Amino acid sequence: VSLQGGVDNEVSLTAYITIALLEIPLPVTHSVVRNALFCLETAAGEKENHVYTKALMAYAFALAGKEEKRKALLASLEREAVKKDGSVHWQRPGKEPEVALPYYHSRAPSAEVEMTSYVLLAHLTTQPAPSQQELSFAALIAKWISAQQNPNGGFSSTQ
């Protein structure tokens, strides 16, 4: 479950596997990929998807070249974004507000780094290329991600 950002469901696992298959790359016409994408398309219509699951699905649809689905999920994710200090990120629903701690304690939990990174990948993975607007938004996401690095350049994430 920790590998899935604390989300334990078939949809997020299906999205993970679909991403892995598309990154091989297997073609979207491959029967396993086609079936997985069909499952994700069905799930994408549900209202109660967790923000982490939406981030994974957005990247899977981006890799598959399914622009409409990618854009719809990114629009939904943008409504749930935390925008502050000139950066953008996503956090788990119902998360306690952050406490002001010394700088070396203020790293985000790994699930938040992971889901925000998937949203960034979904913004940048589009054909022929991301629009100027998407690149500007992606820069705000990248700013937050880079602020999560520890002094050695790594992240709290195991991913």
Automatic annotation (TrEMBL):
Residues forming coiled coils: none
GO cellular component, one term: extracellular space
SUPFAM superfamilies: Terpenoid cyclases/Protein prenyltransferases
Pfam families with a match to the protein in the record: TED_complement (PF07678)
InterPro entries per UniProt: A2M/Complement_sys, Alpha-macroglobulin_TED, Terpenoid_cyclase/PrenylTrfase
Residue stretches making up the Alpha-macroglobulin-like TED domain: 2-159
Name the record gives this protein: PZP protein
Naturally occurring in which organism (per UniProt): Probosciger aterrimus
Lineage start: Eukaryota, Metazoa, Chordata, Craniata, Vertebrata
Name of the gene: Pzp_0
